[in-house]
Structures are given as C-alpha cells and as structure tokens.
Amino acid sequence: xxxxxxxxxxxxxxxxxxxxxxxxLNVSRQAVSKWESAQTVPELxxxxxxxxxFGVTTDYLLKDELEAEEYTRxxxxxxxxxxxxxxxxxxxRWRQKAAVLIAAGAFLxxxxxxxxxxxxxAAEAGMAGMAEEAAAAVGLCLLVVLVTAGVALFVWxxxxxxPFEFIDSEPFEAEYGVHxxxxxxxxxxxxxxxxxxxxxTCLCILSLxxxxxxxxxxxxxFQMVLLCVTFLLAAVGVVMFILCGVRWAxxxxxxxxxxxxxxEKEKNGAKEAVARAYWSLTVAVYLGWSxxxxxxxxxxxxxxxxxxxxxxxxxxxxxxAWKKEDPNR
Length: 329
Known about the structure:
Elements: H1 2-13, H2 18-25, H3 29-36, H4 44-54, H5 58-62, E1 81-83, H6 85-111, H7 114-124, H8 132-160, H9 166-169, E2 172-174, H10 178-206, H11 208-213, H12 220-255, H13 262-293, H14 296-299, H15 302-325
Helix pairs in contact: 2-3, 6-8, 6-12, 7-8, 7-12, 10-12, 13-15
C-alpha cells in the first residue's frame, strides 16, 4: 500500500495522468491503475524504469515507509534519454532505407562467387574465349569487387545509424504518442511481415531444386549455371528476410518488446558476438578450402552444414543461459 501511495504522489507531482505514465513505461493504463490501487506490484524492470523516470532511488520505492523522496545523485533529473515522436518517425524512415542497403550488401556478398564459377566453367568448356587461368583471375577480381561493394554498404549503414546507437545500448524513454504510433504501424505491417517471411523461407528451400537437377546433367557448364541459380534464389530469399526483418526489428526496438527490452540487450549482445565470430570463421573455412582445393562446386556444402551447426550451437547456448539463471532448472 505504501508503494501505491508513493507512485500516486510522484505521478501527480510530475503532472502526469495514468495514461501518460503508462505510455512512458510501455504498459497499459490498467497496469498503472492496479499498481496505484495496490492490487499488483511492478516487475523489477519496471521498478528500475520508474526509478529512472522519477529520479528517485529504488530503495525509496520499495521501503514500507511514507517519507520524503530519496533522489538519485543527479538531483532528480533523469539521465535516461527520451525519444520524441519526430525522432521515432525519423528512426523508422532511416531503418526502412537501411533495410534496402543491408539487403543489397548481403545480395552482393552471396552472389560474389557466381562470376568466378561461371567464367571458370565457361573457360573449361572453351566458351569464354580465354584461358582457364585468365578466367579464374577475372572471376576472382569480380568476387573481390562485389564483396567490397557489399561491405561498403554495411559500413555506410553503420555510420549513418550512429545517431540511433543508444537505442540498442542504453535505456530510453519514449515520449507521449510514440508508443501508440509505433504500435499502430507494427499492427498494420504484421501481415506483410508474415507473408514476406513465408515467401523467403519457401525461396530458400526451393533454391535446392536447381542444385539437385544439376546431378542429372553431364554438362559441367550447365551444372554450374544451375548452381548459380541456387545462389540467386537463396540470395533473393535472404534479401526478403532482411527487408521485412529490419523494419520489424526497428519497431520492436522502439516498443522495447521481447528481445529488445533493455534487460535483454546485454544477453543479445553476447549472442551477436558469438554469431559474428561463428560466421567469420565459416567464411574463412569456406574461402580457404575453396581456394586451396579449387573445387568451388563442392565447397558450397559448408553453408548448409554451418547453418545446421549454428542452430545446434544457439540451442546449447540458450540452455546454458537458462541454467545460469535458474540452477534448479
């Protein structure tokens, strides 16, 4: 009951209604009403947000005594960053553009190897008008150019995203109207997101068909063409995943939902670090094996195997994390 009285006093002192406080905490007005009527108590994450929002200590909020506010050492001025409606709209517009750039970069990196495969196969079949060594050299140059272009797009996106980095690394508060606007956009985009993911998944699965068809042809050049078609279909699938996924994630970040809640970001940072190290190693293994053996038509098997192993590794890491959080699990 004391916590409820303190919450009411702090809310009224700041001149906020229950709706406004709920908006700032990304909860329903009913949740705030239950807190203030002593029906329920906020979770730890919400207590921390309340502490930062009102500039008081968590001890003050949790003490069973109605006393003067115990402000944090910043004197009651919260250092939590706030996102205005205009900033939220700007962030969503930028992430929509970034999705296209990131998707283009991924497409270039995936398709970078296809010129090398086609030129090498064409030279071997006497169709390229150049020696096999020359065809391989040109193919390698094109591979490096395409990968460089893809990486440049990634770096450019990272540079342009710098003003919004705090959304991933720091707690923030959305000002009045932001939550409602983003929630409405997410609701209207839900069907598109689901359809895009279904289509992308189907494309990635269907991309194996040209590869399997190549087994029934003896013409090595035609086999290589079918392999490149496999790369193309898979690349289009990845592009679709990125286009819809980046936009969906940007809305989730502003709403601080699920994995994008501040309390989960440290865990997600560790997951991303493992993912970067894993896929960097995969690329190194793929390129090393391919260049040393020259068997580009076989070394592609690294990618499906890496995908399966990554899924297994992710599940193991998740189980370990759960075990640490709850040793009795």
